[in-house]
Amino acid sequence: MRTPVCERLGVEFPLFAFSHCRDVVAAVTNAGGFGVLGAVAYSPEQLDAELTWIDEQVGGRPYGVDVLVPGKVDAAALEGGHLMDFVPERHRDFVTHLMSKYQVGGSAQPMAATADSFGRRVTAAGASSLVDVALKHPIGLIASALGPPPPEMVAKAREAGVPVAALVGTVEHARRQVAAGADLIVAQGTEAGGHTGEISTMVLVPQVVDAVAPVPVLAAGGIASGRQMAAAMALGAQGVWCGSVWLTTEEAETAPAVKQKMLAASSLDTVRSRSRTGKPARQLRSAWTQEWDAAQESPGPLGMPLQMLIAEGAMARITTAAERGEPGALELANYFVGQVVGQLDQIKPARQVVYEMVSEFAEAVERLARLSE
Amino acid sequence: MRTPVCERLGVEFPLFAFSHCRDVVAAVTNAGGFGVLGAVAYSPEQLDAELTWIDEQVGGRPYGVDVLVPGKVDAAALEGGHLMDFVPERHRDFVTHLMSKYQVGGSAQPMAATADSFGRRVTAAGASSLVDVALKHPIGLIASALGPPPPEMVAKAREAGVPVAALVGTVEHARRQVAAGADLIVAQGTEAGGHTGEISTMVLVPQVVDAVAPVPVLAAGGIASGRQMAAAMALGAQGVWCGSVWLTTEEAETAPAVKQKMLAASSLDTVRSRSRTGKPARQLRSAWTQEWDAAQESPGPLGMPLQMLIAEGAMARITTAAERGEPGALELANYFVGQVVGQLDQIKPARQVVYEMVSEFAEAVERLARLSE
User: Fold this and answer.
1) What per-residue confidence (pLDDT) applies to B75?
2) A177, B203, B266, B292: which one has the fewest Cβ atoms less than 10 Å from its Cβ?
3) pLDDT greater than 60 at residue A73
4) Is A339 a domain residue?
5) Burial code of A267-278, b = ≥16 C-beta within 10 A, e = fewer?
6) Per-chain mean pLDDT for chain B
7) How many CA atoms lie within 13 Å of A219's alpha carbon, on the beta-carbon side?
8) How far is CA B32 from the centre of its chain?
9) Cβ contacts (< 8 Å) between B368 and chain A: which residues?
10) Is Oxidoreductase one of the keywords UniProt gives this record (chains A, B) (predicted)?
């Protein structure tokens, strides 16, 4: 299953694992795949510590870092003052109302203290400081999760000899990302978890492959097994970029109550909603998404990063309450995950997931080859 | 590319072509695929005539018929009286308003005359008379497009030795269809044109394959090229069921103005909307879908079959006006099509589409096999 991307990035299997958890990143890289750490939740200092830990674990094997660089953010949020000052009263009130309606225990959200630095990290300037930290480590890839990589990021990565990857949901965006300097395109279908577009992986990948050739393309969205990996590569992808499948691994830091929800969920139990980040992101359908998206009294989600501030603050409290078994909090709790959640019904080590995918990939390819005889 | 389904149905390539146009059905069957005629638009007499024509063209090669058997229809519509009597005044008024707003010429919709028989055909009783007609012809497959095949349909097909196929959008429906007697499951992803669910082909197909084994599964949704066919079969499907790709063939009866819209459309230009049939169906996004789904004054779509009555009557007039080049009618005009519409940019003979898919399939499988060396 070696493709040109494998040669370029020095990886055995073209299986990329996006995770916010350093243990998953290290485990996948050590199993022959390519771990990519999602950096958005970290301060520059924390990111440095996480990458140092990964460096110690992987013994020079390749891994990467993903930063969130939104193309457009709420303009007001970029001006001076505390970001929380820009959250309207009725949005704060709606969160208070939800906490009360669902009887979520615990003290008021602790977000106020950290909200500002958190929110700033999803602005271009904030992402830039994470890029600086990442490039001080021996990373093999830097990825831009939203919008074209800023010129400064591309220039710094080039200087460091690190390829730049960019996630896209349309052909138009893929062309724009290549023009902005992306060395590798991740074409992500609507079935993916997190920020995602409307076009399915099956439809998107071949169009992107044709549009940006010879730039290599990885497929993302709907891929959590070897058959799906083989399908993605039949479409012309040189590898796959998976996120959801790691959320139910042993190593994942997914809150146990949310992990249980994922193991129980079917593929119908996700929704693309703006209620957590301000941009459409696929996640478990829960009382949180229902209330924000459909309740009469909902003020509607704010843009990014403001919605992220109020949602992540509230979700921290909700998740803690869900861990205590509070029923209302369990109804509200959710997390970003793709439609493949319906396939995830067992907690496994990340290494085992890699080996099973590689082995099922080989079986699928052999089965296909026999059809052509 | 022969799979057990090929043996069972006596077909060379497991490429199924769903079309409302007899010319497409005959062309695909004669090229080695398996044409399936969508019967919903025909009266029993018309269907008989169409199938007689196909019989003469295909010289014993296999083809099939697809009927629309909705599991649930608007209960009121099943009681006595003319179906049109059940359409509320504000829905009629909204159609009149749209015709006026978009300055659609031509006389009031001619639907009233034919609406009743048309609407009745999408009830269980109506579908049954189409099944009787179909089984008098040497068909190789009968398919149920919505809901489990009724016991009577399964019994009649069994007696005639004709396998029954059923379209599904969830694992749960697949299990139910097999329990109801389906011999073949068509797992259709959300990217498909027409009535469709929420789960993507990439995610749905492997789950359905595992759930109903050893019952064979065809993949539908997002498949209009050989790479996509290879991907579907890597997922475990024994063949593919394609609809959209035939709409821009030379043989298709697609209205020329709508065909041009399809050739120009990108994969972002479709929407799942209830505005044409009363159930969520993917179609070109147009002023029609926008007005019904988002305009403040929209009364919201009715259920099936009532919405179908008003929509098809209005669409007949809109399409005729669009053919005259009326700009408002061109804005409103649309048709059912999947996200693959973004790949369709050239009018080709149906036979050429079959040959190109088969040839690209072989290339994709060879490319994959080389990766495993």
Assistant:
1) 47
2) B266
3) no
4) no
5) bbbbbbbbbbbb
6) 92
7) 30
8) 21
9) 230, 233-234, 365, 368-369
10) yes
Write the CATH number for B27. 3.20.20.70
Backbone angles phi, psi at A66, to 5 degrees: -120, 125
Residue A353 has pLDDT above 90, yes or no: yes
Please count the other Cβ atoms lying within 10 Å of the Cβ belonging to residue B171.
21
Q: Taking 70 as the threshold, does the pLDDT of residue A164 lie above it? A: yes
Report the residue from B3, B171, B364 with minimal CB separation from A234.
B364
B21: helix, strand or coil: coil
Interface subset of A 321-340, CB within 8 angstroms of B: 338-340
Q: How many CB atoms sit inside 10 A of residue B62's CB?
A: 18
Query: What is chain A's mean pLDDT, rounded?
Result: 92
Of A200, A230, A338, the CB nearest to B190: A200
For residue B252, give both structure tokens: 């298709």
Q: What is the pLDDT of residues B275-296, one digit of tens each?
A: 999 999 999 999 999 999 999 9
Specify the higher pLDDT residue, A77 or A349: A349
Q: Number of C-alpha atoms within 13 angstroms, CB side, residue A259?
A: 16
Which residues of chain A does B372 touch, with a Cβ-Cβ cutoff of 8 Å?
1, 362, 365-366
- Token pair of B88, please? 């509320």
Residues A321 and A289 in one domain: yes
Domain encompassing residue A279: 76-119+255-334
Give the per-residue pLDDT at A81.
65
Choice among A6-10, A189-193, A260-264, B22-26 with the minimum mean pLDDT:
A6-10
How confident is the model over B72-108, as pLDDT tens digits? Answer: 554 444 556 677 788 899 999 999 999 999 999 887 6
* Contact assessment for residue A121 and residue A40, using Cβ atoms and an 8 Å cutoff: yes
Domain shared by A38 and A97, yes or no? no
Residues 6+ apart with CB under 8 A from B124: B69, B150
Same-domain pairing of A277 and A244: no
Are B259 and B247 within 8 A, CB to CB? yes
Which residue among A206, A223, A368 places its CB closest to the CB of B368?
A: A368
Parallel, antiparallel or unpaired: strands A217-220 and B15-19: unpaired
CA distance A240 to A235: 11
Q: Is residue B159 packed enough to be buried (19+ CB in 10 Å), middle (13-18) or exposed (0-12)?
A: exposed
Q: For residue B324, give how far its alpha carbon lies from the nearest alpha carbon of chain A (Å).
A: 33
Going by C-alpha positions, the residue among B212, B163, B164, B162 that lies closest to residue B187 is B212
B32, B58 in Cβ contact below 8 A? Answer: no
